[in-house]
Amino acid sequence: MRTALSRYGLPGDRETFERDLAAALDASPIGDLAAVAEVIATYRHRLALRTSPDAMAALAAPIGGQEWTPATDVFARLHAAGGNRRPTPSPSSQPIRASC
Fold first, then answer.
1. pTM for the complete prediction?
2. Of the four listed, 8, 17, 22, 82, which is most buried by Cβ atoms within 10 Å?
3. Which residues, including other chains, have CB under 8 Å from residue 28's CB and lie 6 or more apart?
């Protein structure tokens, strides 16, 4: 489990696993390792989700019918719609030029 967490886990997962495992061992009465088994099962499930392409795709899927688009796509759409144009100054805000 430690090796798998080091290799496939998120940053800090192994350290958190060690803390949770130590706490479960300290809290467990002699001969009852149910809390330890629960900690191991929790982290095994995290690794299974982290290494599953289907799980990662499901996490990246749109929620509630919203369409997910990367920022570059959004900016390209904004640019195509003319959303990056600067506002035209009104005649009263233009500087007055003196003619000679």
1. 0.55
2. 17
3. 34, 35, 36
